[in-house]
Amino acid sequence: MQTSDFDYDLPADLIAQHPPETRGKSRMMVLDRASRSIQHRMFCDLPEYLASDDLLVLNNTRVVAARFFPEEGGREILRVEALNERTWKCLVRPGKRFKRGHVVKVGGCLGTVISVCPESGERIIEFDRAPDESMYGHLALPPYIDRPDDASDAERYQTVFAQERGAIAAPTAGLHFSEEILNSLSHTFVTLHVGIGTFRPVSTESLEDHPMHTEHYALGAEAVDQIATANRVIAVGTTVVRVLEASVKEGGGSLRPHTGETNIFIYPPYRFQVVDALLTNFHLPRSTLIMLVSAFADPEFVSHAYQEAVRQKYRFYSYGDCMLII
Predict the structure, then answer these.
(1) How many structural domains comprise the chain?
(2) Residue span of the structural domain in which 199 resides
(3) pLDDT in the model for residue 201
(4) Most CB contacts within 10 A, which of 87, 137, 207, 305?
(5) How big is the chain by its Cα radius of gyration, in Å?
């Protein structure tokens, strides 16, 4: 398939700029793959689609404040990875200002650009001491949220079960869960630290030519044991799908505890080995995420569902509504 097969038109006013007032009050489109039918429900109806021995698998990564604004003004640093406490791999803006040897000041800490990667545009910046993230860091809200982060995002752009620090972006399917809803359902956790590649559209026309981003993940023994005895495994978000499918691939066809990195790229056709159902948000056109969803539910069916979501004025992307594929 070609990248253009995963394109669609979306009116800008359907891109959610803020979360719903209360967790769990989102709409939920339900796709039944067997009957190829669509239902329009609310997220709070999720338990109606689950049996007592079904298992939700959620990503418990915690979003860090990775966006920094140097004191010089007109500049921005996004920490993609902390190589150590003082040395960061970053995306910067504007790139022309951050040449090798350039010095910036963040919260009184001096950072020097020690290398530039021309292929990715990333910079390695070494600070004389680590900037205080709690004081000077900001959440890196996705670029389609056209506003600065505010105090409410510190809570709402974080799942109620976030624990393991390391993500740049939230695993957005998990944002719908309140503690009350989560505690009423059988569940377990995996970890995948969502990286900046999540937001990058596929720029190559052929999917095989796309260089997939790498993300750190962990699958523990307890989760593996729970998955082994579950009736159905319901992945909450595409990041969970990537963890489970990468782990079974790493295990030679068996799901085993594993910690490592994955650059697994799932697109049609793909045979899923672990995941039986998927709860996910609506994703950007031409993105690796909509390709994964299309592999799970059939590209034609997903394309039809997205057109229906636009007609029904669902809210899209990170703070938007969700889709349950059974």
Answers:
(1) 2
(2) 3-63+143-325
(3) 76
(4) 305
(5) 20
Please tell me whether residues 230 and 314 are part of one structural domain.
yes
Regarding whether 241 and 154 lie in a shared domain, the answer is: yes
C-alpha span between 228 and 286 (Å, rounded): 34
Do 71 and 58 sit in the same domain of this protein?
A: no
Are residue 24 and residue 73 in the same domain, yes or no?
no
- Identify the CA nearest to 286 among candidates 222, 174, 204, 165: 204
CB count within 10 Å of CB 282 equals 27
CA 125, CA 112: separation in Å to the nearest integer?
Answer: 5
Cis peptide before 118 (omega within 30 of 0): no
Contact by Cβ (8 Å): 118, 95: no
Residues 201, 218: Cα–Cα separation, whole Å: 25
| CATH number of the structural domain spanning residue 197 | 3.40.1780.10
**Residue 217 CB burial class (10 angstroms; 0-12, 13-18, ≥19):** buried
Whether residue 170 is found in the same domain as residue 73? no
Per-residue pLDDT reduced to its tens digit, 200-210: 778 899 998 89
Single residue among 136, 166, 181 that ends a domain in this structure = 136
DSSP string, 154-206: HHHTS-TT--EEEESS--GGGGG--HHHHHTS-EEEEEE---GGGGPPP-SSB
pTM for this one? 0.94
- Where the chain has pLDDT below 50, the residues are none
In terms of domains, do 31 and 159 share one?
Answer: yes
Cβ atoms of 68 and 105 closer than 8 Å: no
Last residue of a domain, one of 136, 151, 166: 136
Interatomic CA distance for residues 167 and 158, integer angstroms? 10
Alpha helices in the chain (DSSP H): 133-136, 153-156, 179-183, 221-228, 238-250, 288-297, 299-311
At 199 the pLDDT is 66
Cα 150 to Cα 120: distance, rounded to the nearest angstrom: 29
